[in-house]
Specification:
Blueprint: H1 2-7, H2 10-13, E1 17-20, H3 26-36, E2 42-46, H4 53-65, E3 70-76, H5 79-87, E4 92-95, H6 105-109, H7 115-128, E5 132-136, H8 142-150, E6 155-157, E7 172-175, E8 178-184, H9 189-196, E9 209-213, H10 219-236, H11 244-247
Parallel strand pairs: 1-2, 2-3, 3-4, 4-5, 5-6
Antiparallel strand pairs: 7-8, 8-9
Helix pairs in contact: 5-7, 8-10
Length: 262
């Protein structure tokens, strides 16, 4: 990480974050990184299940040690836990359990929460305490990103929509003359083998590994998302993105596009 920090463009360090778990060694490791790369002002406390007293206490500990940093914490899906984490010192709460494109938590454990409902509920709780939320997972197209912002999200986290591009991580493979890139969930067997030496006997994999067609540079995908968001704002009468949640009204539908030529 020291090499990575020295190779980064100086301006990128100010928008980068140190991502950490809540284990015994994580706090010291995080402190070492932030001391060596002081330009980084964002901390992401990232666990699959934010519903634990241990995690709440860890957030308090990190806030006490880094009072000037912006702290993101999650994941949770209900308003009361959003409030608990904000009152413990977090600035931004990550919302989402199970909606990711390579996440299998809902089928493996039966645990989850519909992402749009979670964002609506959690945004209301966070904004009442002057906090913010990140909608983490569930987006498959620019329209989904617009819905997340319309539901009250301050930020939207994307993984699957950016997979397969030149800039994203993942091994490039070739099958039958077609370029593919590997994309895997962070609770998948692939991730556990890479970062933890394998799947522990007491655990189950809650993610999958997929082969995504190579898509080239990510710029076109980003421009497509931004173009969709601008059009969303014009449809609902929002002069700026922050107004979108005050202009949007949600109704329940069974399909969102015409399938005649799909």
């Amino acid at each position: 990480w020291m090499e990575a920090g020295s190779d980064f463009e100086h301006s990128l360090l100010f928008t980068s974050s140190v991502s950490s778990g809540s284990g015994k060694s994580d706090l010291e490791k995080m402190s070492d990184i932030l001391e060596a790369v002081p330009q980084v002002k964002f901390i992401c406390l990232d666990v699959a299940n934010g519903y634990s007293e241990h995690f709440v206490e860890f957030v308090k500990l990190v806030r006490a040690r880094f009072p000037e940093h912006t702290i993101m914490a999650g994941n949770v899906v209900t308003g009361e836990m959003v409030e608990e984490l904000i009152l413990s010192g977090a600035d931004i709460i990550k919302v989402g359990v199970g909606p990711g494109s390579v996440c299998t938590t809902r089928t493996k454990t039966g645990v989850g929460y519909p992402q749009l409902s979670a964002v609506i509920e959690c945004a209301d709780s966070a904004h009442g305490l002057k906090g913010h939320i990140i909608s983490d997972g569930g987006c498959t197209c620019p329209g989904d990103v617009a819905k997340a912002f319309g539901a009250g999200a301050d930020f939207v986290m994307l993984g699957g929509m950016f997979s397969g591009h030149t800039e994203c991580a993942g091994e490039v493979i070739e099958k039958d003359g077609q370029k593919l890139k590997l994309f895997y969930g962070m609770s998948s067997e692939t991730a556990m083998k890479k970062h933890a030496g394998g799947v522990a006997e007491y655990r189950a994999s809650e993610g999958k590994t997929v082969e995504v067609p190579y898509k080239g540079d990510v710029e076109n995908t980003i421009l497509d998302i931004l173009g969709g968001l601008r059009s969303t704002c014009t449809y609902v009468g929002a002069a700026k993105l922050k107004e979108l949640s005050r202009r949007a009204t949600f109704i329940r539908v069974t399909q969102q596009h015409n399938t005649v030529f799909s």
